[in-house]
Each structure stands twice: as structure tokens, then as C-alpha cells.
Specification:
Elements: E1 3-9, H1 12-16, E2 21-26, H2 32-42, E3 62-66, E4 69-72, E5 83-89
Length: about 90
């Protein structure tokens, strides 16, 4: 039995992925790499523009927010049933 995780995408990820919000089933104990891998399978257009080609990592300038906390590439997290994750473009300094 797996866990259900809702992922909403905004900015370029949301323009690239259809639909913008997906519900993914992941294995117990799944982390950021597992989530990225499932997103690539669900929305292949994300690879190369949002997800590093051939890897299970986000490109620079993108981050996940899980239940209100930010996680960047290199930070890992564990997913739990019912988690809400947002994938978005980080704001650039102005």
C-alpha cells in the first residue's frame, strides 16, 4: 500500500504540466527524488525545463513547498499520506 500526495504546480511547471494539480501514489517512506521521478512519469514535459534531464532532481530556480515548508534541491524530505506539495519557480532577486 502506498501513500497519496497532492502536487500543485505554478509558474512554468504549471504551464508545462497538464493538469496543474496531480494526485500521485508513492511508496511508504518516499522522498524528494521519488516525487520527482513520479512527476517525470506523469508529466514528461517537465524533464529538461524544470527537472534535470536524466536525473531525479529539480533544476536550479525551482523548489517544493510541502505542507507550508520550503525544500530546495539537496534538501530531502519524507512524504506522508495526505501531504500537499507545491512545485514553483523561486522568485529572482530584483
Amino acid at each position: 500500500m502506498g501513500i497519496l500526495c497532492n502536487v500543485a504546480m505554478y509558474g512554468l511547471p504549471g504551464q508545462t504540466a497538464k493538469p496543474r494539480t496531480v494526485e500521485l501514489t508513492l511508496a511508504e517512506g518516499a522522498g524528494m527524488g521519488d516525487l520527482v521521478e513520479q512527476l517525470k512519469r506523469n508529466s514528461p514535459g517537465l524533464e529538461g525545463s524544470v527537472i534535470r534531464a536524466g536525473e531525479d532532481r529539480l533544476m536550479d530556480g525551482y523548489a517544493f513547498i510541502k505542507n507550508g515548508r520550503s525544500y530546495f534541491d539537496g534538501d530531502d524530505f519524507r512524504l506522508h499520506d495526505g501531504d500537499h506539495v507545491v512545485l514553483l519557480v523561486l522568485p529572482t532577486g530584483g
